[in-house]
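Hey team,

Sharing the Beta-lactamase family protein run so nobody has to redo it. Sequence (407 residues) first:
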Amino acid sequence: MTPKPMLPQRATDYLLHSCYLLLLTTLIMTGCKKTQDHQDTKPEETKDTLSAAFTTKAGAIRARSEMPGLYLGVQRNGKLLYSRGFGFADEKKQRAFTGQTIMPVASISKTLLGIAVMKAIEEGYFDMETPVNDILPFKVTNPLYPEQPIRVKHLATHTSGIQDTMSEEEPEQFTWGKVPGQTLHAFLEDYFIPGRRLYKPASYLPEAPGKSYHYSNVATSLLAYLIEIKAGMSYAMYVQQNIFEPLELRTAHWYYDDRKSSQYADLYMPTPIKQWLPVYSGILYPDGGWRVSGEDMMRYLDEIMKGYSGAGKLLRADSYRQLFTPQFTATGFKLGIFWFLTPDGHIVNGGDDYGIAGDIGFDPGTKSAWFMLTNTSVDRRDNSRSPQLRDDYVEMRKLLVDFAKQP
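Structure output:
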């Protein structure tokens, strides 16, 4: 029996050092078999010279990087321009990675929470200035600043002063299996209530709420829990009813579903010997547990673009406007509500987890949008073992964005 790998400590600082790049590492990818890349785009699209050239370049980058599989999607002027899979969803069975392949999208999941928060505000559950302790059944207070409340807006912009302190030895964040062994509510109580087993004073920064940017998955999931309390249902169900169903995202869900097993991509960790990952799940699922196909992600991105222009159907126009309005300025970028606004006018998010790397974004100026996803980690924290994988991922992203923005 192949031993199960240990999950490394999770990356938590997407865009901390660059407003463009995901959390990029690089680890050696070996043994990846070359394949003819799967065709998803419609026949009329493949006749386009620019699309054909893009496909050739993208396929070459994927092949040399030995990413197991890859999905690339492009929308322009409200139309799906490109949707294609490359490589393998399952290397052992040689199953192609396609637009219908489903896999987790890591921290891109947080963009759902942005919509859910604005929907909760529309429904009167709270507003951005609401102190979280006005809602929670337990108290969350920075012991260094006990008189300064943590507010909804702080959780929504990574400025709460809460930081993630889980280590590799603590299995609560991720567990092998289809569902986690603890509820979100129970985890958050253990994490924030003094004297409980996961409580640490170091979980709070030595800075008052709202004063500095510090990416936090725990703070993100705490915000989702506020919605659970006010809505009287799980966050998963709230998103299902208010986002997945209205947009008819039929592949979108949170935890492993046996009925969809044939559609899932296998996930791989690029260690010195590439390692297949068994199914794992996370208690903090709101921050990174969304599972979806590339084609459904493009439908979601279409709604995001329409929402930006004031024509979305999930939220009122003023709610969408607030979603993309800068709420906090950090070094090199500005923060909307779970969206990063870059100096060149892009609005982006992305993620990297165990066996996952992805990037989503759009350019309002050119009315173009893009999505890419691969079933291996490209986390930046250890790029010494495979700088080529990191560089290839960055090159692929640039190629995709440039193609999306072409007139």
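The chain has ten helices and 15 strands.

Ping me if you want the raw files.
A.
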